[in-house]
Specification:
By secondary structure, the protein is mostly helical. It is built from 19 helices and 2 strands. The longest helix is centred in the N-terminal third of the chain and has 29 residues.
Length: 482
């Protein structure tokens, strides 16, 4: 059946009403703090509300249901359109970003990438900083919903394994999907609140704590300071951030299972143990390198290694040090980490641990069959046997992901970026990480110096990476519209 445009228009209208409400709240914040930005937030809220009202009114009286094909269309359109309206307050004076820069900033926010073109964040108005952080927080919950609800039915990258197959019992008065969505939002809000309290208790101001709590749980990485987490110079804060970044990179359905009870084996997703184990090993290796090769004190080596490894592995993108200065060995590790990502069903980007586990199982099966041609060696994920179709979809996703990475790097090189910068931009953009490797876009750098053409291509790359690439590509396939 053809995807219908009207469900997408109606739903987009209500999403824009939410964006308008958020801009209205920021106008009130600007009035309360007297930072001079109330007018642009107020005008932006009015413009967004008018467009939202037009979307809702044009669908009035029409009868339709939102099917999964319609939801796919809506998701792609929303991730393209919403940043445009969220960027309106950044275009006007006194922020005065260009159209491309403002759109880039909000695409980076909504997709929880964390790449920024804004400089002088320490002196930026509180309403603007809060709006940037809020865009990432809202984008994070949208990503979780997309991963849980839509991707499994599109059979993208093996996500059909996560087709809500857990044993919770919803109230009969509530549809199962709705009860799951509400429970996930409750976990998301609770983690954000807990992170805020911990940051505040450990020395952040309430404003910094609120902003960083929002951008930590959604593994996004916008900060209120140009120096990111290095501004606070606090090991206690870094370890708190490590904990909450890891929690944000865990599958939210697994967190829900743990809260709902049952046996430990039923509640614990196998990718969680793999993710934590891999991160711990990488932290140990890098900490040892800093201690031996660069003469870091043992405690500082462990803290800096743990914070920055977890930040890149979870695709959060915070930085507590310029790890580019740690030498080629460290730079290569961080570049490799940009492909890893957290767990499937979380706010993290990149390829994700689940798919690495499936690909490892495929390779292992191939080796076993090469040695013992008649052996029965099913592909397993935890206790599940994975059908060949699902394993193939994981392989297809990984192939297309690497192809998109290579294509992005080639385009960046064609636009005049250096080799190291082009490759790093491609990895950080497709993986929704934020900082890359090198002087230009490294942890101490900024994306403002890139040409507009590169920023536009990066916007497309961030959206594709956030929507698992295939969700965007199928929009260009004629069969999607039959």
């Amino acid at each position: 059946m053809l995807p219908q445009i009207w469900p997408a228009v109606l739903t987009l209208g209500w999403i824009l009403f939410a964006i308008s409400a958020g801009e209205g709240v920021m106008a009130l914040v600007a009035l309360a703090t007297e930072d001079g930005h109330a007018e642009e937030f107020g005008v932006s809220a009015a413009v967004t509300a008018v467009v939202a009202g037009g979307c809702v009114l044009t669908t009035r009286g029409r009868q339709f249901q939102l099917r999964f094909r319609d939801a796919t269309l809506l998701t792609v359109v929303a991730w393209i359109m919403v940043p445009a309206f969220a960027a309106l307050p950044l275009i006007a004076e006194p922020v005065n970003l260009s159209l491309v820069d403002a759109y880039f900033e909000m695409v980076s926010g909504i997709t929880t990438t964390g790449a920024t073109v804004m400089v002088g964040l320490d002196d930026t108005a509180k309403s603007v900083l809060l709006w940037r952080s809020f865009s990432q927080w809202i984008g994070g919950i949208g990503i979780i919903g997309f991963a849980i609800v839509i991707l499994p039915f599109l059979k993208i990258g093996g996500m059909q394994l996560f087709r809500l197959e857990f044993t919770e019992r919803s109230e009969k008065s509530l549809p199962r999907m709705r009860s799951i969505a509400i429970a996930v939002v409750e976990i998301y809000v609770t983690l954000t609140a807990a992170c805020f309290v911990v940051y505040w208790m450990l020395g952040m101001t309430p404003f910094d704590a609120l902003n960083h709590a929002m951008t930590t749980i959604c593994t996004a990485g916008f900060s209120t300071h140009d120096a990111s987490f290095a501004h606070f110079d606090s090991a206690a804060l870094e370890w708190a951030a490590i904990l909450f970044m890891i929690l944000g990179a865990l599958p939210f359905l697994s967190l829900l299972r743990m809260l709902r009870g049952g046996s430990l084996q039923d509640r614990f997703d196998t990718q969680v143990t793999t993710f934590v184990s891999v991160v711990a090993i990488l932290v140990a290796i890098l900490a040892l390198w800093l201690f031996i090769a660069l003469d870091f004190p043992a405690d500082a080596a462990l803290t800096k290694a743990a914070f920055n490894v977890v930040s890149i592995a979870t695709t959060t993108g915070y930085a507590s040090a310029d790890y580019v200065l740690w030498g080629t060995f460290a730079a290569v590790w961080f570049f490799a980490l940009s492909f890893m990502g957290g767990c499937t069903g979380s706010t993290a980007g990149a390829i994700k641990i689940f798919r690495f586990k499936v690909m490892y199982a495929v390779v292992r099966q191939h080796v076993q069959r090469s040695i013992y041609p008649h052996v029965v060696a099913p592909i397993r994920y935890g206790r599940r046997v994975i059908p060949d179709e699902q394993a193939a979809s994981v392989g297809v996703f990984v192939f297309i992901y690497l192809l998109a990475f290579a294509g992005m790097a080639i385009v960046m090189a064609a636009l005049g970026m250096g080799g190291e910068t082009s490759i790093s931009i491609a990895a950080s953009t497709i993986g929704n990480i934020g900082p890359g490797i090198g002087e230009v876009i490294g942890p101490a750098g900024n994306f403002s110096s890139l040409p507009d053409a590169a920023k536009i291509v990066m916007c497309l790359g961030m959206i594709m990476g956030r929507l698992e690439i295939l969700a965007v590509l199928i929009m260009f396939m004629p069969s999607f519209y039959r």
